[in-house]
Amino acid sequence: MRWRVIAWVSLGVNVLLAAAWWSVIRENAAQRATASALAAEQPPPPPARTNIILRRQLFYWRDIESPNYTNYIANLRDIGCPEQTIRDIIIADVNAVYARKRATELVTGEQQWWRSEPDLNVLRAAAQKAQELEEERRALLTSLLGNSWETGDLVSLPRPSRPSVTLDGPVLGNLPDETKKNIQEINARSQERLQAYLDAQSRQGLSPDPRELAKLRQQTRADLAHLLAPPELEEYLLRYSQNANDLRAQFGQLRLFDPSPDEFRAVFRATDALDQQLHLLADARDPASLATRKALEDQRENAIKIALGPKRYEEYRLLHDPLYQEKLEDADGDPEVARALYASYLAAYHAAETNRLTATQQRALEDQLVPPDLPPLPPAPQPRRVYVLGPGDSAATIALMYGLPESAIRAANPRVDFHRLKPGTPITIPRSPLFPESSP
User: Fold this and answer.
1) What is the H or E stretch that residue 427 is in?
2) Residue 437: which of 382, 378, 379 has the closest Cα?
3) Deepest in the core among 196, 261, 310, 395, taking most CB within 10 A?
4) Which of 244, 248, 288 is nearest to 268 (CA)?
5) Mean pLDDT over all residues of the chain?
6) How many CB atoms lie within 10 A of CB 220?
7) Cα distance between residue 179 and residue 183, in whole Å
8) Does the pLDDT value for residue 158 go beyond 50?
């Protein structure tokens, strides 16, 4: 009996589920019919449109001179870009390319930071190269925009500018544009700080303090050090730092020294830190600061000696003497010949000076006065005269000078070996009837 009850219950549940399913189907059909009727009464929607966004393809600067850049310009025109905008874009792109070329291909005077005066041949070559690049730039713009491109050159109109530094050459010329921009900003801020300080001192009637100027320069260096790698910073300092400017002036005063790039760089590296410390001690008057300054100056001189090497340092030292500069010019710039002429002159000068001093001393002895309150003394033998040998002197030349026989000279100097005479040896001159006793 139990299975019959279960069967009837199962049948009832299935009937209920079927009724519910049929009800849901009828409701959905009614909703679809209603929606179709409403849709029939409304106008059809507009067709869907697809927005097409054109974006500039990535290209390298070298692509400007290739068909890729021409295609890029053609695409700009196809999408309706204004012709003036296209012209400005092309001119800006081409100008950027040739600015890079000028920075990397020209050898300018600023790149020869070791010279106190620019090389005229370098300046002429740079001017010629700059003219060639300008002609290339104009020819490229003409090929891209036609002969009338200059009439719409808006990007080349004059604009306000401020002082800047030249960033060219193999090191600074290859810096990224953003880095160059930041360098110019640092330079501009440095100039503004300097001018503000000078104006403040002027308003107070004071002269600029060298120590404060040194601190301002150190601040600029710190800003650049955060931006540039060490080789890039050194290249900038070799061109534009105050210490490098002073070093160029120092070498420029030594005519005919003409340091090489390696020598200038070596001396700059050896003296730069010392010069910074010396600038901070400028105008110091207390004993401790003066002692520190003297020690730094000695270190600097020794650093120059090590940087240049013994031979070049000796020439550097000699060139501080105007007389050696004169002999170097007489020798047509040959240091060896100049040293020989210089040594010969000094030897002759010292010999003449020695003779002069000896004669002065002899006259002082001969001209001694007798005190007026004493009775006159009987005449005494005059002291013997003394002649100091110079280069090339001999017993024969001395005898000829004083009108004496050579034997008299030898007899008056029994302890002198006349076969081995040396400059500086004193020779006693006996009295001669041909010369008064007071003669030298």
Assistant:
1) strand 426-429
2) 382
3) 395
4) 244
5) 76
6) 19
7) 6
8) no
Tokens read off for 174: 């290859």
The confidence score (pLDDT) of residue 10 equals 59
pLDDT of residue 299: 93
Neighbours of 304 (CB within 10 A): 20
Asked if 64 and 97 touch (Cβ cutoff 8 Å), the reply is: yes
User: pLDDT category, 238, cuts 50, 70, 90?
Assistant: very high
Backbone φ/ψ region at 207: left (φ over 0), alpha (ψ -120 to 50), beta? beta
Task: Quote the tokens at residue 272.
Answer: 């730069």
**Residue with structure tokens 């690049």?**
133
Q: Please state at what angle helix 210-225 crosses helix 261-280, rounded to 10 degrees.
A: 120
Identify which has the larger pLDDT, 404 or 22. 404
Contact 254, 315 (CB under 8 A): no
Where is 336: in which H helix or E strand?
helix 335-366
Tell me how far apart the alpha carbons of residues 190 and 196 are, in angstroms, rounded to a whole number: 10
Q: With a cut of 50, say whether residue 225 has pLDDT above it.
A: yes
Does 132 score more than 80 pLDDT? yes
- Domain definitions of the chain by residue range: 61-157
What does residue 426 show for φ and ψ, rounded to 5 degrees? -75, 135
Q: What is the pLDDT of residue 52?
A: 44
pLDDT in tens, 328-354: 778 777 777 877 877 777 777 767 777
DSSP label at residue 65? G
pLDDT tens figures, 44-63: 555 545 444 444 455 454 45
Query: CA–CA distance from 182 to each of 41, 178, 186, 233, 239 (Å)?
Result: 67, 6, 6, 13, 17
What distance in Å separates the CA atoms of residue 215 and residue 221, rounded to the nearest whole number?
10
> Which residues, at least 6 apart from 169, have a Cβ–Cβ distance to it below 8 Å?
103, 104, 107, 108, 110, 111, 235
| Helix (H/G/I), strand (E/B), else coil: 426 | strand
Report how far residue 439's alpha carbon sits from residue 121's, in angstroms, rounded to the nearest whole number: 63
Q: Please measure the distance between the N-terminal and C-terminal CA atoms of the chain and give it in whole angstroms.
A: 172
Which structure tokens are listed for 424? 């500086």
With b for 16 or more beta-carbon neighbours within 10 A and e for fewer, the 12-21 pattern comes to: eeeeeeeeee
Q: Is residue 354 within 8 Å of 426, Cβ to Cβ? A: no
Contact between 301 and 274 under an 8 Å Cβ cutoff? The reply is no
Mean pLDDT of 192-218: 91
3-state class of 387 per DSSP? strand
Q: What is the pLDDT of residue 91?
A: 82
What is the H or E stretch that residue 86 is in? helix 83-105
Under a CB-based contact definition with an 8 Å cutoff, are residues 405 and 366 in contact?
no
